[in-house]
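S.,

Sequence below, as promised.
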Amino acid sequence: MAKIDAFFKLMHEQSASDLHLSSGQPPAMRIYGDIERIKYKVLESDELKKMLYEIAPENKIKLFEETGDIDFVYEISGLARYRSNFFMQRSGISAVFREIPSEIVTAEKLGLPQVISKLASLPRGIVLMTGPTGSGKSTTLAAIVDEANRTRKDHIITIEDPIEFVHKSKGCTINQREVGLHTKSFKTALRGALREDPDIILVGEMRDLDTISMAIEAASTGHLVFSTLHTTSASKTVDRIIEVFPSHEQAQIRSTLADGLRAVICQTLLKRIDKKGRCAAFEILIATPAARNLIRDSKTYQLPSTIQTGKKYGMQLLDDSILELFNKGWISPDDAYEKANDKSRFRPLLTRPPIDFTET
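The prediction came back faster than expected:
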């Protein structure tokens, strides 16, 4: 057993999402959103390097010493998988680990809105899962892919960096590819996927112009594509995709995206005050004809109005979802205010509203 495994077991017992190991500091864990120190000695750089190198593949160690940072997955059988990131900083080597459950939590157990589960049955198009880092995007996306795996008889290809949730073929045949290990890049894997008879393609993250372009092309050629972005609302998600392209291509991309888009799900996590744990708030945009026309006509600023009037389709604004959680007594007014897009709506709920000069 590797020496670091003791930290992972403690992390699992404490329901921590992340483990932080930094040279010159004691270890720390993120528990329900907050960083908590572990009662342990300060980690010296040489000691920590030895501990970390014990679990890293040789090729990753070589890459780390050349570049100063790496990503890979470490697995403890019967416990969990850990998305691992090593990086160099002023005091020496450091690492952050995110726990990935061995078992995929179903959409029902996660309590996802029914319309999100239905996305697994779409025949084609692109579905975007967005939100800040650590908002549970990967968990929700894994649940959707699992729903498709259980209810369809198709071919699913996932392209990830690194592979997080491991899917076992059920009704579907699943092939999972890791960038850097099984393929050179997202772009290369996506180009190859179009020749590999897929029905569903999961792209771990749309990071650059080439990946975004290939994902939109895959969706427009009859495939169902799932992917993620780091945006906080449906309208910002659409704008982010369009703005990646050169100005002379944006009109064409607006039209192509409008035709291919099926849904945008924006997710954030909030700490519960009624019990230990966190809960998710969602903004849901379903690409109705009205929404498509707004995207095509460069009127994405009107998408929130379309979402408000589209409740019968399962649409909802993030702030409405947050307000519902607050009214249930699940979250604090301060957390609601912090995570809301329209903070003025939640300001009256606060006993001592913060002074934020950036909003004046």
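Residues 137-151 form the longest helix (15 residues).

Coffee later?
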